[in-house]
Specification:
There is one protein chain. This protein is mainly alpha-helical and 234 residues long. The protein is built from 9 helices and no strands. The protein has helices spanning 6-34, 39-68, 73-93, 98-108, 127-153, 157-173, 175-184, 186-208, 223-233. Helix 1 (6-34) packs antiparallel against helix 5, helix 1 (6-34) packs parallel to helix 6 (157-173) and helix 2 packs antiparallel against helix 6. The radius of gyration is 19 Å and the shape is elongated.
Length: 234
Amino acid sequence: MFGIDPSFLSSLVQVILIDLVLAGDNAVVIGLAAAGLATDVRRKAILIGILAATLLRIFFALITTQLLALGGGLLIAGGVLLLYVCWKMYRELTTSHSDEHEAQEALENSDTNADGTIAGKAPRKTLRQAVIQIIIADVSMSLDNVLAVAGAAAHHFEALVIGLALSVVMMGVAATFIAGLLHKHRWIAWVGLVIILLVAVRMSLEGLGAFIAIPEIPLLYTPHAVAEAAAVAH
């Protein structure tokens, strides 16, 4: 079942890197939302956010892969959504590290810059405000993660299953660690951005290929692969 071939390995590497980057990105958003809370409720908000993100990934994994199997317009919609994800990631990667530092302090519950406070520069808010902000972000980012993994798997079912399981584990167990890793090594996030961009273009082309004839584009689009995927779906 787990046949090892270059195409499968390539898809699996892409899936793992996407999971890594998006889990870290999601954790940073949770940390930012919780940074403005009092210390005694900050950990509660972060735990709620990580649990919600984990459950949402499971839910979206159950429905999104079935919807994408229908092809056509849904693939185009998924590709466009991932292009928007790329734009959001680009904006985050080209902004100041100050907000991200506040998020990291909140996630680690540690005064990493020795200024006498933990996320002390973040605007104050209530637990309810933080949780609402976290849940809204979790819905969007969990869907983004599942779509990106499904697109990167490129019809390799084994890579898809591994990727979706890994995304749940990374978000549920190692989100804070991954956020710290990306904070220290920004190049990982840039590589992830490029891969998600390629996945978005490939997904959009496969959707368009169901309606119009598109010539083969190396690394991005193969007409016979779309035909095989449609046959499997039916």
